[in-house]
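haha ok so turns out i had the wrong file open the whole time. this is the CORRECT one, sorry everyone. sequence first:
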Amino acid sequence: MKKRLLSEASVHGRFQPLHNAHLEYIATAKKCCRHLWIGITKYDADHLNPLGRHRDKPEANPLTYFERIQIIREALIDVGINPSEFSFVPFPIEHPSALPLFLPHSIPCITTICEDWNREKIQLLKDAGYKIIILWEREPKEITGSKIRADIAAGGVGWQHPVPAATIRAVKRLSLHERLRLLHKGQ
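then structure:
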């Protein structure tokens, strides 16, 4: 029996930068719906997160909202997903009461569990009135943005293995190595 596709659903993340585990998450979620809304968290780099986590630091957020959208768009096109089947939206998870200003409650949030923060987000989203669909639970994370950013900042090449080609192209095009080096220097 064929599973019925949702008309719309959403995913969300910082994607700093997009890596293969992110791409797997987004592509798998897209198989669940006709149109996927991709929520970008930490879309306003100047806005402080009241939750005060490591992911709030400037060196953890080197890419702009627009740059992340471009990378994700390229990566999805590279894997054969039609750009008419997905859209982007700011996703202020750090301010759950503001989420409905960007994403209606009628659109379910598809997520995964890879760490305790994911469980917290699920509860925040449920409390905000969203239906949650969990694709999988995998702990610990095999790929992390912090390790990728650290390797890029150090001038390494190992970061290239766990990221899609679109991320490699963007890191080079944007001189992300230099940007991260300056952000680490400014700590």
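The chain has a mean pLDDT of 91.
again sry for the mixup
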